[in-house]
Amino acid sequence: MRTTIKDIAKRVGVSTSLVSMHLNKHPLSERIADETKKRIDEAVREMNYRPSATALSLRKGKSKTIGLVIGRIYSVYSSFYAEALMHEVEKYGYQLLISVTRFDKENERKCLNNLYNRQTDGILYSLHIDSREPVPPFLTNYPLLITHYPHPELNTILLDETEPINEVCSLMKERGFKKLFSTFLCDKKSFKGSCGVELCCQPRRNFKTNRELLEAVKAENAEVLEFGSSVLAMDFLNDLREEKDLPYIIFPYSLPSDYFEHPKVLGAIVNNFQELVALQVKRIIEMIEKPQNKISHIAIPTKFLSPAELNGRYQEQLSDEYYQGIVSELSIAARRW
Question: Domain ranges in the chain?
Answer without folding.
Answer: 5-51, 63-159+274-301, 162-270+306-330
